[in-house]
Every structure is written in structure tokens, then in C-alpha cells.
Fold:
Amino acid sequence: MIRASRSGTLRVTLFRGALPLAVAIIAGSVSAQAPFSFDTAFGRLPKDVVPLDYAVAIVPNVTEKTLTGTERITLNVRSATTRIQFNSLNETLSDVRFDGQKVNSVTSDDKQQLTTILLNSPAKVGHHSLTFSYSGKIETAPQGLFAQPYSKPGGGDGVLLSTQFEQTDARRMFPCWDEPAFRATFQLTATVPAEWATISNMPIAKKVTKGKLATVTFQRSPSMPSYLVEFTAGDLAEISATKDGVKFGVWAVRGQEQGGAVALANAQVILADYNDYFGIPYPLPKLDSIAVPGGFQGAMENWGAITYNDQTLLLTPSSTIGNRQTVFSIEAHEMAHQWNGDLVTMGWWDDIWLNESFASWRAAKETELRNPSWKWLEGEDASKESAMSADGRITSHAIETHVTDELQAANAFDPQITYAKGESVLQMFEAFLGDDVFRDGVRRFVKARAYSNATSADLWNAISAASGRTVAEIAADWTTRPGFPLVSVAASCDAAGNRSVSLAQQRFLLQGADPNPSHWNVPLQVRAGADGAPQSLLLTKDGQSIAAGRCDQPLSVNANGVGFFRSAYDPATLQTNIKAFGSLPMRDRIVLLDDQWALVQAGQQKLPTYLALASSMGDDLDERAWGQITDALGTIEYAERGTPGHDAFASYARALIKPAADRLGWESKEDETPGLQKLRRTLQSDLGAWGDQAAITEARQRFARFKTDRTAIAPDDQSAILSIVARNATPADFEQLHALAKSAKNETELRRFYSALMLVRDTKLAEQAAAIALSNEIPPQADAVRLNLVIGLHDENPALSWKIFSENLDTLMASHASFAPLIIAQYSPAIFWNSVPLDQLEGWVKSKVPAEMEDNVARGMETARFNFARKVALTEAADSFLATPGLAGGSQKQ
Ligand SMILES: [Zn+2]
Structure:
């Protein structure tokens, strides 16, 4: 599953001092696990009766939002029992029979989400059948089987049915053993309007039409967990292709299916690559990608029938390169799950990282492989930095985190730790062991656990077998405890100028001290000099000493930035690195910028040292390096807002990025990489945000042309230019921006134009923008966008954004379903730290979420308090830097 994309609209709106809004978390930590065993796997359901095969037939009533169904389950009774227990929610069972005989009693408890059946006499060991009829609900939010209203492309209202079951919502559509270790085969039947298209995990086996209704039966699925069952039905149309015996389909609301052409081509390339990488060919006869409009956000890896929010799958002429990157990278993520997740499933939600980190890591590699000009792996540094900022908190949690019951599992999907830290850790181990050895280990893992479940131990054992090294012990440092180390590097030189360095480590924290001093086995990549291949080395103990080139050479112990740790060099080595900065490989420059900026934020380095590095970029062009710099400068500029030093710092920041902006100009060039084009837009919009009059004038002129000629600004450039116009908007500009938003041709434009509208600086205009975000101008399928829009107001109007958010919480959260508590508990404090006094914020958050989310609230509030303290510290440091004669002026002339 994936819930946010790195090039999503939130990057624009949530921009400074806030976190990318996405999702989830949990507490505690676990020790290294044993290999998977069904009998010892965690879960609430008893294991003496297990399902082998389900035949589920449903008849949905879309008007009434109800459904009726029948179910026939083949069971394996493993020890004689009179009691059978499984999951159900909002369902009423009737005519329950065991081997054809009526049972003694049936009790369904919605609070526990369990149904308990008592038999008249103990069932013998062996296979039996359980049959029943039931009635249930169609949901309006994406949990279980849900109805999704939408505006049809040609006008008029439509509604379709789709499903979202991960983690624990299959039970909302049909009673079942809804825990990941209970794999079974599924045969689904549905009766729906005859003209509707129907899609499930497997191809249609038969379709019988009677009057206005058709009964469709799908082929039996392979053995899989219940959360991967999928069903979508509605007035949908498909484009398709067949390659290597697999039929690929992209489905969308009728009239939009051609927007899936790029996704269809991508899927064929990605599947062929994964067949090779994983060493086991994709085992199903077809792979459908389904574009669901509306409240369903992100994408879900249902086996053979992946669902996507339509904005992450379909492209139109309004789409940008960012949209194309989203489509490819999310497809690559969900398709990696067809192996890591679907063919091999974690045994329990503790190990959700086995699904998510793997899919993210594999997707990043695949995206880089097939789109080298995107420099995707270099750009993943931003996601690693996001993970490190979350993991630099005392309240952080381990990648493997114990989930005590499956109802908490929704909170285990933490984008910064479960996805991004896990991805980085896998990347670090891949670099340490070598790509081929690591791939071998992955192949062994998938082969050994196919059609079954796994724990982390199964993975590390397979990788140990492939590498001949005991990986489990080293890896456990990274997956079973929170945080990461700061590696200190102290060099000494001999008379001939040869350098040896002594290494030490401690936990890196943005604030406070490590309560339980931690130690990691750290895979280092050591590069002395500006070129040459790095050497792999394992740091195991403090004081470990290594030879590291010559003292006049630059040094990196995290070459290419593939390690999930920070480095601090002794002053002389740091000076050597700063001097050589312009000649370092770009990824070594980036990690140096990252680490120095993190040390500044943690109060362990002086701001001028970081700014000296940033100034040394000159007009060298690289998207991620400049993205790092503009994020840091933007954080300081945001901190300075409303203080006397603001204008001086804004002027300094403009001067620092101007040479690169000037070199890029305003017009895209044909041979430019997407990265350089994106860099141009980042620099333009920052210049505009920081008050550069030339940029503001240029943006306004371009907008004036755009009003009458919609081709005057390319789709890729629209967000940057509109953001500059919006921040500086007059009432007349605002009217024009609003008119533009109302005329959006599709949801891609709608998101872009309305997001820009939220950036207005003028308070009165911002109030109008807020009213628009809540109005019915936003069509039903874009309901989830309202939350992004309201948060978008925060950049220029933090108090207003908070007021609208807190007063309309229920409306804004309606389409975010089970993730709403996490958004409120953990993300809202990180966003609204400067909107409302912190104690008041904390009290409010606590009053809105269940008491067991205290760890999530603690994480959110730690970030809020850190952001607040950082604002004070950065303002002071920047003011003092600018008041020091010579320093700032010297940098500006670079
Ligand atoms: Zn996923």
C-alpha cells in the first residue's frame, strides 16, 4: 500500500517546517524474531480451525448501501473442537450450517469484530464445510466494500463499487479469518447491473445475465491472505495488452481509460524486470490496474488487481513530469508487492516493513533503472532525510514494532519509518553486501517462502546464506531499535601526510540526550579523495581505527550517502572537505549538506559552517543538492517571518540561489533533464516566495498571458508560477486565480489550481480561499483534497489554517477513514506548531484521539516543540551571522 507520493501536491503546500502528510505509527520494540511458524505467529484468532477455501457470493444494493451474501468455507479442523471463531463487522449471519447441520449458536460481537459459532458436538480433525447467509453494509469511506460517487467525464453523476481491505477490512465485506497468516483460496461471485464491468483478483470464469442483472463468478485465486481480495464494479472501460502470457489491463471510469496508456506500457516493462529480479515469474494470468476516483488515496497491491487513486495512475495533457514520475514509481511499488507482500506475506503486522520497505526500495531501484535521467536514487535522499528527521526524535520507534492486536495495525504504516527508513536500511545493506549477493538472498527468500508467510528472520537467514555472512545480528541493530548513530571521525596524520582516522558513535538526536546509550554495527562506505570507489567497512566498536588516504584529501565515511547515519568530521577534515566541496561527487556533496544542516538543527554545528558549504555550490546545477539548500534556507526564512531580521535574511537567501537560477533562466531547454527543469521551478518559486521583485514581475507577466492562452505556461511550470502570483495576489489577481480554478478541465488541474489559491498571503483573501476549500466547488471524487487545501493555507496563514482545520475536523477527515486518528495525533502537531500555543494544541489533540495513541501524540508534540525551539535558535543564528561584517557579504558574491 502507498499513501503519499514524493512529488505530490503536498510538497508545494506543506513546504516549510511541516511534514509531508501521509500516515501512521506505533510503540514499543521487539527482539529479533524466529522464522515464521503458523502456530506461533501472533494473532487473535484461534488456530485449531483454519480456512482452506472460500466461495463468497455477494449481491450489493448500491442505493440502500447494503449487501446480502452467502458463503461456503472449506475448513481444516486441526484439533477436535466445538468452537469456531472468525472476524466479522456489521454483519448478521443466518442459516449457519456445519457440514449441512444447523449449529448450536452464533454470536457476532462488533466491538471485538468477532463471530463465535458453537457446534452441537465436537468437530473431528479433518476437512469440513461451513455455510451461511449474511447481510452487511456498503461503506461510504474506503474501508471494506465502498460506494464511490463521481462526476462523469461527459457530465452527470456516477457511482462505482470498489474495495480497500488492508489492514483489517475484508471482514466488512464478508465474514472471514482476517489475519495475514490465514491464507486460503477465494472464489468470488457478485450480482451487479448487467452493463457494469467487474474486476477481481482473477479473470472472470462465467457471467450469467438475467434481466437487468448479471451474476459474475471469478476464477479461484491462489492461496493468499484475506486483505488482498479485490472487487471493483461500475461503468468502467479498459485498455489492455498481453505480454509473456500475462494480460495487462488498465481500467478507468468510462471515457478516461486512454489516460492509462503510459501506465499500461510501464506495467509490462516493470513486470519483466521483476520476473528476472525475483527469480520467480509472476504467477497469475492477468494483472489489472484500476483507477478509482475519489476518497481512495494512494494505491493498494491486491494480487492481480491493483487499485490506484486515479490521480496516481492516469495521465492527461495537463499532467506534469512529476505526475509521470508518480505513476511509474507507484506502479513499481505496488508491483513489487506482487512478490513481497502477496506471494510472500509478513506473518503478522509487526513485520509490515517486509512488505513496505521492500516495495519502496525495489521501486526506487526500478524507477532509476528505467528512467536514468530522473536521477531517482539521488532524489531518494529527500525521503531518507524525512526518515532521519522522524527517527532523530527520542519518541521514535523501531522499524519492527509490536502490534498487539490487528485493530491497531492501521497505525503501523508509518511512511517515514516503515517505508522510508526501511528502504534506506535495505539500500545500506545492499551496498554493503553487493548488489548481486543481495539479489541472490532476495531470490532465496522469495523461493523459500512462496505462497506462505515470513518474518524478518526468514529474510536475514536467506541473505546470510547468499552472502556467507551472519547478517541477522548486524541487521537487528537497524530494525529492532529506534534511532541511528552519529559517527564521529577524528583524523591524525603521520609525518608523510598519511591519514588514519579513529571512529566513534552515539545516537543522533535533534533534541535531548539518549536515555539508553545505543550502539549499532554500522556499514560504512569510505572514500578518501574526490574520486575512486569507496571501501566497505563495518564499524563495530568505538575507537576503531582505519587508514584513510592522505590528510590533504577530502574524506567521506558515507560515500554516495547510502548509509542511514550521520557523520561529524574533526574541524581540520571538515575544512578540507569544504575546500574540496566543488570537486566532490554530487552524492557526497549532498550527504555533507544533509549532515551539516542536521547538526546545525541539533545545536551541534554553527550555522555559518553550513552556509559556507551551501555557498560553495556556486552555479553548479543539481536538483537534489539545491533542493537540500533551498529547504534549509526556506526553513530559516520561515523562522524569520515576522521578525526584524527577516528582510535581511530573505535578501541573503535570494542572493545565494540567484546564480543558479540565472544560469537556468525561465525557459526550458530541449536537452534538459527533468531534474534540471524541476530545479528551475524550485528556484523560481523560492525567489518569488522570498520577495525577489524580478521573479514576481516575470511570474505576473506569464500569468497574464496564461489567462487568455492556456498553452502559454506548460503544465510542468504552472504550479511554480501560480504560487508566486498567489502569494503576492491582489483582490483582482485572486478573482482571476479563482476563475482559473473553477475552469479546471480535470482533477489534475483542479488540484494544481486550488492548491495555488491557498497560498495567498493577504488575510482577507485567505479567508475567502478557506471558504472555497470547504465549498461544493470541490466535486465528490476530490473530497480528500480538501484536507490538503486547508493545510496549504498554513504556509502563509498558520492561524487561519488551524481555525479551519479544528472547526471542520469531521468533514476534512471523512474520506481519510482509518488513518484519520493518526493524521490528527501525529501529523497535526507537526503542522500546526506555530498556529496555536503548544499546550493548547496538545490538549486539543489528546481530546480528539483514543488514549492508546499517546505515543503518536508524543511524537507529534516532540516535533512541534522542536520546530518551535528551532525557530528561535535559527532566527538568532541567522541574525548574528548577517550582523558579522564580511561573512554574509562574502557569500553573496559567490
Ligand atoms: Zn506498499
Remarks:
- DSSP finds 28 helices and 29 strands in the chain.
- The first strand starts at residue 49 and ends at 61.
- Residues 1-2, 301, 333, 337, 356, 359 surround zinc ion (CB under 6 Å).
